[in-house]
Amino acid sequence: MRDTRKTEEQKRDKGEKGESLRKMNHPNIVKLKEVIRESDILYFVFEYMECNLYQLMKDREKMFSEGEVRNWCFQVFQGLAYMHQWGYFHRYLKPANGDLYYGLF
User: Which one, of 49, 57, 54, 11, lies nearest residue 30 by Cα?
Assistant: First the structure.
């Protein structure tokens, strides 16, 4: 038998994530446009990003300059600092998760 308490808790957590993301207003954080609930599934609709850091890295033939890397790191840290000021943190930071990297490219 399925544990409905866990399912309800997961739904509440995702709903809270959506509300948290809506509060984020920073040039280096992708803006959440809408949360859509269909049955037991939540869909998060973000503003359009042309690419993410992973896509830039994998298609690159030569290394990025030190200045480019410093600039991107600075912008990522600015977005993280903003989130931390609001009491939130990013649970899974990696180049393919572009939700924090808006405005880097």
Answer: 49
The pLDDT of residue 82: 92
CATH class of 4-100: mainly alpha
Tell me: the pLDDT tens digits for 75-88?
889 988 998 998 88
What are the backbone angles phi and psi of residue 65, rounded to the nearest 5°?
-75, 160
Residue 105, pLDDT > 50, answer: no
- According to the model, what pLDDT value does residue 22 have? 79
39 is written with which tokens?
């049955």
Please write down the long-range contacts of 47-55, taking CB distance under 8 Å and 24 or more positions apart: 47/102, 49/98, 49/101, 49/102, 50/105, 51/98, 51/105, 52/95, 52/96, 52/97, 52/98, 52/101, 53/95, 53/96, 53/98, 53/101, 53/104, 54/94, 54/95, 54/96, 54/98
